[in-house]
Amino acid sequence: MPQSSPSHPERFNDLLSWLDENRETAGASYLELRRGLVKIFTWNQCADPEGLTDVTFDRVIKKLPGLKESYEGNPRLYFYAVANNLIKEQRKAARSQVPLDSLDFPTDASLTDEQETQEMRSDCLEKCLQTLSADKREMILSYYSREKSEKFTHRAEIARRQGVSIATLRVRMLRIRTSLEECIESCLDKQVKNG
To answer: Do 85 and 160 fall into the same domain?
Structure first.
């Protein structure tokens, strides 16, 4: 069993089969998804990225029987949505548990505005990703999922699977990214107007 597997070992096989029918591919997908979730929690400055990743898997596993029948699309997106909810819960809990006299309030109001804008952008990105077809959503998430030297070999593999050159893949990704950026800007404008 892979490292730090979820706390429901009897349902872990069901999770792997949901990620991919091929056991070996499913194991690799699980480890890649786990690393990705840890990064997301780290980027969002969560105190225990590994622990929150475990919680994410546990929550998905609890809903897995219904999910396998009703959820359509890439399972990774469901995990990312659960992780996003956990991040929001963590932030809310942190705000409610810290006494006011121990807080260091930012002297510059723009810092708070920047944090709000970042949260709004994140919400809009989530909404805009849902407007894409499942194939495009999976492709763009996969395309930007790696860093440094890993990204080049990963992107070459995506191009090979798609049967296109890397240059053609870049053009496709640019189109998808441009449409996402337009959607996000439109979403942000609506939030500001309704604000």
So the answer is: no
* Domain tally, the chain: 2
**pLDDT, tens only, 16-26:** 888 888 888 88
pLDDT digits over 63-114, tens only?
Answer: 888 887 888 888 888 898 899 988 888 888 777 655 555 555 555 555 566 6
Give CA–CA dist 87/53, Å, rounded. Answer: 11
In the 8-state DSSP scheme, what is residue 100?
G
In angstroms, the CA 153 to CA 159 distance is: 10
pTM assigned to the model: 0.47
CA distance 74 to 131: 14
- Taken in order 63, 66, 69, 70, the sign of the CA dihedral is negative
Distance CA 150, CA 165 (A): 18
